Amino acid sequence: MKAKPQAAASVVVFAYHDIGVRCLASLLELGIDVRLVVSHQDNPSEQIWFESVAELALKNGIEVITPDDPNIPSVIDKVAACQPDLLFSFYYRQMLSEALLAIPRLGAFNLHGSLLPKYRGRVPVNWAIIHGESESGVSLHRMVEKPDAGDLMAQQAVPILRNDTARDVFQKLRCAAETMLIKAVPQIIAGQLKGQAMDLKKGSYFGGRKPADGQIDWSKPAQQIHNLIRAVAPPFPGAFFDAGEQRLNVLSSYYREEPARFDEPCIYFENESFQADCIDGYRFMITRMEVDGEPLDEAAFRHLFGSRLLLAGGGDR
């Protein structure tokens, strides 16, 4: 059975995304008194594939605000008026000021989607897959002004399989976050979890990514290209390369460490699927590809490129 705090602690939650939904649900399951939720307005230019923190809060009668800037005086005053024991940030996309972090009696804590101090900063799941990591996880740490740098309170690891996409890993992190919070939050309230300082020299910091960063460089080995494809696969913008006047979007792939058929990098159709031979002598399967936004099948491929599409190196990203 889960451990419940001895008395209902009061909290203010800053949250967004699937992880934010599951973390808020975990606090409610623990009987935490959530007095205010601060979230984001959905961006109409972004594909919203995740659940709504605001909807969950409203189902539970919790006030929700979505300020463009959480650090303006009116928001700070509203948070202070809640007299929270704790403040939590769960995949909230903006940095919180020192004035906000100083409000809660027991401190402010952030949940980050990596095994800190590795992959501090933005989009940690995508970066971990790009770098071929075999595991990721979630970390709960005390918030300070410097991002992802305060004392580490708890962690929960998950595996990354070599054909997992970023969305697959996000689904694992949802469960990991619940497991970690159900155990850690009552310990924090009871003063039983003190945390330990992070050695930032053992970690890394990464910035955000743009759609243009999905350009495939065919001078890279097969597994590195596969890692990029699965890291930015839908619902993210996807990987791409240009062949003459056509833009090809490579939206999913599968890697089995098979030897390439040809000596030079190329794409061809074999055994009912597209294959991409790479410069290191290995190939991967392309399981979904588009040309100029339209699905590409064998007939369309042969019409445009013949039996093989020879590949030139792209930008180094």
Key terms for this structure?
317 residues; elongated; alpha/beta; seven-stranded antiparallel beta sheet; seven-stranded mixed beta sheet
Notes on the protein architecture:
The chain is of the alpha/beta class and 317 residues long. It is built from 8 helices and 16 strands. The strands form 3 sheets. It has a 7-stranded mixed beta sheet with strand order 3-2-1-4-5-7-8. Strands 10, 11, 12, 13, 14, 15 and 16 form a 7-stranded antiparallel beta sheet that branches. Strands 6-9 form a two-stranded parallel sheet. Helix 2 (53-59) links the parallel strand 2 (33-38) and strand 3 (64-65). Helix 1 runs parallel beside helix 6 and helix 5 packs antiparallel against helix 7. The N and C termini lie far apart (47 Å).
Concise overview:
This protein is of the alpha/beta class and 317 residues long. The chain has 8 helices and 16 strands. The termini are far apart.
Show the helix and strand layout.
Blueprint (H helix, E strand, L loop, with lengths): L9 E6 L1 H13 L3 E6 L14 H7 L4 E2 L7 H9 L4 E5 L7 H4 L6 E5 L7 E2 L2 H7 L4 E8 L9 E8 L6 H24 L15 E2 L15 H10 L7 E5 L2 E14 L6 E5 L2 E5 L4 E10 L2 E2 L2 H8 L2 E3 L7
Parallel strand pairs: 1-2, 1-4, 2-3, 4-5, 6-9
Antiparallel strand pairs: 5-7, 7-8, 10-11, 11-14, 12-13, 12-16, 13-14, 14-15
Distance between the termini: 47 Å
- The chain-level structural class is alpha/beta
Mean of all residue-level pLDDT scores: 93
The amount of helix comes to: 25-40%
Specify Rg, calculated over alpha carbons.
23 Å
Strand order of the largest sheet: 3-2-1-4-5-7-8
